[in-house]
Amino acid sequence: MQEPFEAIVISRGDDKVQKVETRQLNLDDLMDGDVLLEVEATTINYKDGLAITGKAPVIRRWPMIPGIDCAATIVKSSHAGFTAGDSVILNGWGVGETHMGAFAKYARVSGDWLIKRPANISAMDAMAIGTAGYTSMLCVMALQRYGLTPASGPIVVSGANGGVGSVAISILSKLGYTVIASTGRPEEEDFLRSLGADDIIDRKELSEPGRPLGKERWAGGIDAVGSHTLANMLAMTQYGGAVAACGLAQGMDLPATVMPFILRGIALLGVDSVMAPKPLREEAWERLGHDLDVGKLHSLSKTIGFDEIVETAHALIDGKIRGRVVVDMKK
Ligand code: NDP
Fold first, then answer.
1. Is the minimum distance from the CB of 246 to ligand 1 under 6 angstroms?
2. Is 208 in the pocket of ligand 1 (CB under 6 A)?
3. Residue 286 belongs to some domain of the structure
4. Which of 164, 193, 204, 243 to mutate to test the pocket of ligand 1 (most atoms within 8 A of CB)?
5. How far is CA 171 from each of CA 4, 135, 179, 226, rounded to the nearest angstrom?
6. In the prediction, which pLDDT does 3 show?
């Protein structure tokens, strides 16, 4: 364990231009924490793509090891809740942003950030789910807490071919909801239907500026896209419905009016995964163990090795990745 190990490191000099490289690090290079993890698997999320491409200011401490998620085995722990050998999952909490992250053989973190990996979810499947899939579950739970059931009407999912969208479709379908998938990749229709989408719409129907109120087309929605798409989803939600919003793939603006709220009683439910409290995370992961079809999870994910992380992160931001990517650290 004293031998150097490989890590992806993002650094920047006085010119503020960032450099991404694979470096040999020692445990002393990691940051403080009461648990040392050996990373079994990790994944590439949209946020990791933004960090590696430098397209948005995700990294707030240099140098930084990116990677916001991992499934890991505990090597050493002085945290009361965990001992060496435990299998755990880590999502968010600023890991890969302000605290050295998961794109390395080892990570040293706070035990307060960890949850025990449910026995019925393997390390690889946990990362096929990752923050994107766990956020999809948080969105579904938000719609259910609001009272939307399959009998309420269809649910529209934007960014359907992405990580959040593809997992959301799979979960909603398993729970019996009728799902409308909005995508810019109509050639993936068969794939989206295989996940459980009942209807496919072209994302252009939602991504252009629209009217304050439109025809009532769905009972609710899960939005990973923001901007005009979210505004139009709200404008086309039926009376009393709700949209869970978690993403900004189109933009961080929300060019909407108050009309859906004041004339149709629509609710906008914000969803954050990064700082979500532990009981909510545990509930989401427990539910992922039975509300997500493992066969569908495998069909929407692909596995890569550590050496392919950087190029895959660029491809994800270019919209060229379908579903989810798992990084097998032993590959
Ligand atoms: P992906 O890159 O996997 O998917 C994003 C999808 O959005 C794309 O596949 C594409 O779907 C669609 N899309 C991309 N660009 C545009 C555009 N310009 N206009 C409309 N649609 C577009 O990312 P994820 O699914 O992992 O994440 C989606 C969003 O959710 C990101 O903004 C991410 O930051 C956010 N997120 C937020 C979390 C939170 O805690 N709130 C947690 C996890 C993610 P298609 O090709 O089907 O049209």
1. yes
2. no
3. no
4. 164
5. 41, 12, 10, 21
6. 86
Cβ–ligand 1 contact at 161 (below 6 Å): yes
Q: Ligand 1 pocket check: which of 225, 272, 281 to mutate, most ligand atoms within 8 Å of Cβ?
A: 225
pLDDT tens-digit readout, 124-149:
999 999 999 999 999 999 999 999 99
* Residue 231 CA: distances (Å) to CA of 89, 126, 160, 161, 236: 34, 32, 17, 20, 9
Q: Which of 117, 47, 105 is nearest to 316 (CA)?
A: 47
> Do residues 158 and 237 both lie within one domain?
yes
Domain that holds residue 19: 5-117+300-328
Residue 175 is inside which H or E element, if any?
none
Answer yes or no: do 238 and 310 share one domain.
no
Q: For the whole model, what pTM was predicted?
A: 0.97
Per DSSP, the three-state class of 34 is: coil
* Cα gap 279→161, rounded to integer Å: 29
202-212 pLDDT, tens digit per residue, is 999 999 999 99
Same structural domain, 178 and 266 = yes
- Residues in contact with 191: Cβ distance below 8 Å, sequence separation at least 6, in sequence order: 161, 299, 300, 322
The pLDDT tens digits for 58-104 are: 999 999 999 999 999 999 999 999 999 999 999 999 999 999 999 99
> Which whole number is the average pLDDT over 168-182?
98
For residue 283, the model assigns a pLDDT of 98
Question: Which amino acid, one-letter code, is at 223?
Answer: D
Mean pLDDT (the chain) is 97
pLDDT given at position 331 = 86
Q: Is the CB of 163 under 6 A from ligand 1?
A: yes
CB 227 near ligand 1, within 6 Å: no
